[in-house]
Design goal:
Rossmann fold, globular, 5 helices, alpha/beta
């Protein structure tokens, strides 16, 4: 079963390009061109990871991320997605509570790697319980 990515970008061209790139490397892509239905789509689609464009009219991507963190909705890695410089994206991601950022690019492999790394990083790790020492019993 392919990983599901929700992509929010107001640019139809960027949205089509991202959808094609991610589809080519095996992701199932849900594309949104407006933040209006973002939270409803997040709950309905339950994506494995989300890409949010930074520069959008009405509400910017950083605000969408910040609101998604405060809302009691589906929890998954949310990455800012833009062609802005790395330093600016890192600061915006930190400021708004994003799990990171990805620079817009035509390189499907780089995009795939960034998304997979975000998902691995966000996965909760099971609690480690050391085995009992020899000669001791475990509590029941």
């Amino acid at each position: 079963m392919p990983y599901k990515v929700l992509v929010l970008d107001d640019s139809p061209t960027a949205l089509r390009m991202t959808q094609a790139l991610l589809g080519r490397v095996g992701f199932d892509v849900v594309a949104l061109d407006s933040a209006v239905h973002f939270f409803k789509s997040l709950e309905k689609e339950k994506p494995d990871v989300v890409l949010v464009d930074v520069s959008m009219p009405v509400i910017d991507g950083g605000s969408v991320v910040a609101m998604s963190r405060k809302a009691q909705t589906h929890r998954c890695p949310v990455l800012l997605y833009s062609d802005r410089p790395d330093r600016e994206l890192a600061a915006l991601a930190s400021q708004h509570g994003a799990d990171g950022y990805v620079r817009k690019s035509n390189d499907a492999s780089t995009l795939k790697t960034a998304l997979l790394q975000a998902m691995v990083k966000a996965k909760p790790r099971p609690q480690f319980t050391p085995p009992p020492k020899p000669g001791t019993s475990t509590p029941e």
